Amino acid sequence: MSGLAPVVFAPRDRSPVDLLTGRTAVRTADVRSAAVGRATAIDRAVGSGGAAGVSRGAAPSDAAYALAMTVLALLERGAATLATCESLTGGLLGATLTSVPGASTVFRGGLITYATDLKHTLARVDPGELARDGAVAPSTALAMAAGARETCAADWGVAVTGVAGPDPQEDHPAGTVYVAVADRVGAAVEQYRFDGDRHAIRTQTVEAALRQLVEAWRSH
């Protein structure tokens, strides 16, 4: 199986950046949340003690489930495996993948590096880079994706790091998210700006990560 091309996910209005030289190609996607209304309804149910509060975030969105099915089908067809590394989503990406029957043929496992120090101890992010760039940075996302792939002995790694809100983190506003995908050859990262509450931002992050995996597979 061939790997990611050295240049992927480059901004459409800029020259491609060679990811293997250590420089990072970042594309910003301004995404409006289609899930805000649904999240608000769930908020009301939580406030009133409704049963929806118990299952909030437990089931993937329809879009995420469909994307997960596509990711798993593509990787299974190519006899490839996948690992995840999650920060702001806290395991939601892995849960979405494993909600699809038969995911075990492709999904190796994942790392939940919610605390900053775990990005080094579990995902092997260089502590110097982590101290310099912070937890919410393209370089950190790239290292997390590579670390997940190596730690879990998978062919592909995908990582998400960002700010679910409501408060900013490291001077980044809520909704700032980096998603990185890595294979044996290289890695690429994209930046997103999501709207909505914590639930909406986390949901959109999972959907973006799965969509990015599909794009990466089809371009490799």
What share of residues are in beta strands?
Answer: 15-25%
Order of secondary-structure elements: EHHHEHEHHHEEEH
* Amino-to-carboxy terminus distance: 9 Å
Structural class comes to: alpha/beta
Number of helices: 8
Task: Sketch the major β-sheet.
Answer: 6 strands, mixed
Q: What is the helix fraction of residues, given as a range?
A: 40-55%
Low-confidence stretches: 5-56
* Largest sheet: spatial strand order: 1-6-5-4-2-3
Rounded mean pLDDT score = 82
Regarding quaternary structure, what we see is single chain
- Overall number of strands: 6
Query: What is the overall silhouette?
Result: globular
Give keywords.
220 residues; alpha/beta; six-stranded mixed beta sheet; globular
Describe this structure in words.
The protein has 220 residues and is an alpha/beta fold. It contains eight helices and six strands, in the order E-H-H-H-E-H-E-H-H-H-E-E-E-H. The chain has helices at 36-47, 52-55, 62-77, 92-98, 116-121, 127-133, 138-151, 198-219, and strands at 28-31, 82-86, 107-112, 156-162, 176-182, 187-194. Strands 1-6-5-4-2-3 form a six-stranded mixed β-sheet, sandwiched between helices. Strand 2, helix 4 (92-98) and strand 3 form a beta-alpha-beta unit. Helix 3 runs parallel beside helix 8. The longest helix has 22 residues, at 198-219. The N and C termini lie close together (9 Å).
What is the element layout, followed by pairings?
Blueprint: E1 28-31, H1 36-47, H2 52-55, H3 62-77, E2 82-86, H4 92-98, E3 107-112, H5 116-121, H6 127-133, H7 138-151, E4 156-162, E5 176-182, E6 187-194, H8 198-219
Parallel strand pairs: 1-6, 2-3, 2-4
Antiparallel strand pairs: 4-5, 5-6
Helix pairs in contact: 3-8
